Amino acid sequence: MNKIGFNVLAWTAAVSDDVFPIVDRLKSIGYDGVEFYLGTPELEPYKRMGDYTKSLGLATTAVVTVGKDDNPISESAAVRAKGLDKIKWAVDRAHALQATVICGPFHSAHMGFANRPALDQEYALAGEVLHAAGEYAAQANIVFAMEALNRFECYLCNTSAQLKKLVEAANHPNVRAMFDTHHANIEEKNYGVAIETIAPYLEHVHISENDRGTPGEGQVLWDDAFSALAKIDYKGWLTIEAFSRNDPDFANAIGVWREFSDPWDIAEKGYQFIKEMCIKHQLGSQL
């Protein structure tokens, strides 16, 4: 059974009571859940948000990133230790949020490059950190959905094949994978092959247009993506991830320099688009 979610990063990277009206409207559109970025330092806002979403009958998922100071593939053992601490910190906040999935590229520093291809040793280092973090996550019933990013944001994992290598290096049942249509649109040669490659570990899917605007209004090969998900009988989340400049600090950090679509246009049209594509390709509960 597929649930449809929306990531509130289209409005803000913060978790606070100010987001309640956004959650209310997403619920009215028909969404099953809401995804939040784990960046707000205090624990209490996550608890309030978790209680609030639960009261509306909405589930939650979460996303997190790491940087150069807590990079799990750093040559420095001290920096790798900080990476593990950051992921554990994220697990605590996701647990307070009542989320059961943390997705994202927290296998390595976002926008951190080594001016060379990834080394086998770096996959091994990431695997060690993620395995230890997976042990911690298991206690909170949380699963990691690791993400492959495009070449302009990451060098460790750009493709499903590389992501599979990473997940297998971690070797933990709570360390799995996600698929993001935006990044795949840049890096993969074929959606079907990419999804089949990561299928044994696939936990989460981001529905994201090539320009980060409204799904279905760009160049992503949506029929290929949804038919491939149906072929593997994917039953996880289909969560829209779109960006804007509503939160300037976050937008600047990820290189969003213009508006793509109005967030509510994305939310309303995107929800209907996902429903239609699920029916068309006989995916999950939308039959």
Automatic annotation (TrEMBL):
Keywords: Isomerase. The keyword Transmembrane does not apply. Pfam families: AP_endonuc_2. GO terms for molecular function: isomerase activity. InterPro entries: Sugar_Epim/Isomerase, Xyl_isomerase-like_sf, Xyl_isomerase-like_TIM-brl. SUPFAM superfamilies: Xylose isomerase-like (SSF51658). Residues 23-255 form the Xylose isomerase-like TIM barrel domain. The keyword Isomerase applies. This is D-psicose/D-tagatose/L-ribulose 3-epimerase. It comes from Dyadobacter jejuensis.
